[in-house]
Amino acid sequence: MKDSGILFTPFNFSRGGHNFLVREASSHSTEIENIAWLAAEAFLDDMVINYFSGSTEIPTSVSTMIGFELYQFYCVMFRACMLSRGRAIVVVSLPEESNKNEGSIQNNIAAAAAWYGPQQDVRVIAALRAGVLTPLGNYGPRLLKRIGEFNRATHATFTRAFNERALTRKNAWYLQCIFTAKQFEGQGLMSALVREGFNHALKCSPSGFVPPVILESSSGRSRSRYLHLGFEIIEPWCNIGKGKVDSRGCRPAENKGIREKAELEGIKFSCMVNWDCRKALQAENQK
Asked: Given 20, 28, 43, 188, which is the most exposed site by the fewest CB atoms within 10 A?
């Protein structure tokens, strides 16, 4: 968080025969575009994004019109995070010694994450500057309506959990988005980004206070990874979009009958929290 006074120090690590650098994302348009293309590819079949967009089908490629609109959505998301003083952190793949000639790297983003600190959120002026009118033009008024529905459901779930511990949602760090590029999946890059976020949250917190870290998970695969990193599922499910979309987040085509629409089950996702990221870091260091 830029207002915290805690400076970010880039660091290197190696996995699977590759060398990586973890650093803050650049606000340069080329880097944001590179991040957004990879995010769009990673979330092509994400039910929540499908619901936001109002799509009738899951996009098969970022080269389709639906995929391109998804790319534009993630451009706005990461740009708004930076403009709202959140944290956009990337893992970049470093070239081999023999390939370090100038201009050898174009898109070397291997993973990325977007974070918001306590009492931070997307600022309206930041969203406008980030280009939010573009996805609004693509998806129509339903985008704001469905994002609002999603936010209300998650807020209510987190509030119940935090009230039980005499805490508020404003005490927490929020992991808004995290992904790994397809070619680097399975090499622990997501875990590296989450642990970096844990460390930063602890450095920014008052002495003796361990901040909670929250997120939403929309797939069984991601839930398993988060559970491994010390997160827990607050409640079994959040369910939104009932009667509007199927379990993939897709709305029925216009030629579908009223009866079929009435049977649409909506999407289910999980709100998750890590109450003690320090303990999670200690457990990881002992491995």
From this structure: 28
Nearest to 111 by CA among 88, 132, 130: 88
Output the CA–CA distances (angstroms, integers) from residue 283 to 228, 276, 287, in the order listed.
10, 11, 7
Confidence of residue 255 (pLDDT cuts 50, 70, 90): low
Query: What is the DSSP track for 236-277?
Result: S-EEE-TTT--TTSPPPPTTS-HHHHHT---EEEEEEEES-H
**Residues β-bridged to residue 238:** 269
Report pTM: 0.91
What is the chain's Cα-based Rg? 19
DSSP at 25:
P
Kindly report the backbone phi and psi dihedral angles of residue 176, in degrees, each rounded to the nearest multiple of 5, phi listed first: -75, -40
> What's the CATH number of domain 2-285, 3.20.20.105, 3.90.550.10, 3.40.630.30, 3.30.70.580?
3.40.630.30
CA neighbor of 52 nearest in space, from 121, 176, 145: 145
Please list the residues that pair with 91 across neighbouring strands.
Answer: 22, 111
**Strands, E assignment, 47-131:** 87-94, 109-116
The residue ranges of every structural domain in the chain are: 2-285
How far is C-alpha 93 from the geometric centre of its chain's CA atoms? 20
Strands 18-24 vs 109-116: parallel, antiparallel or unpaired: unpaired
**Residue 93: pLDDT band by 50, 70, 90 thresholds?**
very high
